[in-house]
Amino acid sequence: MIVGSTWVDGPNIQFGSRDGGDAVVAGPDYRLDRLTPRPRLAWAPKPCRTPEYLLDARHEVVPYHHRPQAQDRLVSWLDEPDALSALVVRGGVGTGKTRLVNAFAGVAHLSGWTVVRAACEGSPPAWPSPRFGSSERVLVGVAQPERWDRATLYRMVSALPAHFPGATVRVLVPSRFGCDAGVAEVVLDGVVDRDRAFVEAVHAFQIALELVPRDVRVPDLSGCSTVLAVHVMALAAVLGG
């Protein structure tokens, strides 16, 4: 059973980051890296205390915001019988795609799945690829899908059964755009609870900046249509004193 707190407090695994992976497959078009959890920092290093760093979803300064319907769909997708299946997480900029897929990677890891990042930047393999057993379950997250040539992406997905022979493979693609017919998708839109998201973000930014915690008045957030927009308002309130 996967409980709600697992999504928030689970392992920190990031598909979008370029470091922290061990090469599984590497070639001229793409590479697959096995990912393992890395520490999550509650505070931001002093040289990184900039809006760009604090608002970057990859740094996870603000705690993950629950998406119950999307989470349930992703978990049920893992349990489907297909040996190979792809799912698109679709949403505009700032809707929380990165945070959702990274949290899901942690959930999958805790459930026994091997987590792999697919990047379109290939390079010659520096060491032999690790072997995978036929009972392996592999979750492949596509990093920076907007940079992939469609033909290369299709070729990578089609080659996964050969890369992981006998394994159950799931391919997760965060995207700002719609998907081809026949590919399932989860659609993310606006923030469910803006006030709560604002308060959580304010608290997180105060901790990250090592400020004395204090209450901040919640402004009118009706114009904030994304999680990122709420976080921008929260950071402005914290920095504005």
Features:
241 residues, alpha/beta, seven-stranded mixed sheet, 7 helices, 7 strands
Low-confidence region ranges: none
Strand order in the sheet with the most strands: 1-2-4-5-6-3-7
Provide mean pLDDT, rounded.
Answer: 84
What is the terminal separation in angstroms? 43 Å
Structural class: alpha/beta
Q: Give the SSE order as H and E letters.
A: HEEHHEHEEHEEHH
Number of strands: 7
Strand content: 15-25%
Largest sheet: 7 strands, mixed
Radius of gyration: 19 Å
Helix fraction by DSSP (H/I, runs of at least 4) = 25-40%
Number of continuous helical runs: 7
The dominant shape is globular
3D structure, described in words:
With 241 residues, the protein is of the alpha/beta class. The chain has seven helices and seven strands; from the N terminus they run αββααβαββαββαα. It has helices at residues 4-9, 51-55, 68-78, 97-110, 150-163, 194-208, 227-239, and strands at 21-26, 31-35, 84-90, 114-119, 137-142, 168-175, 184-187. The chain has a seven-stranded mixed beta sheet with strand order 1-2-4-5-6-3-7, with helices on both faces. α6 (194-208) crosses α7 (227-239).
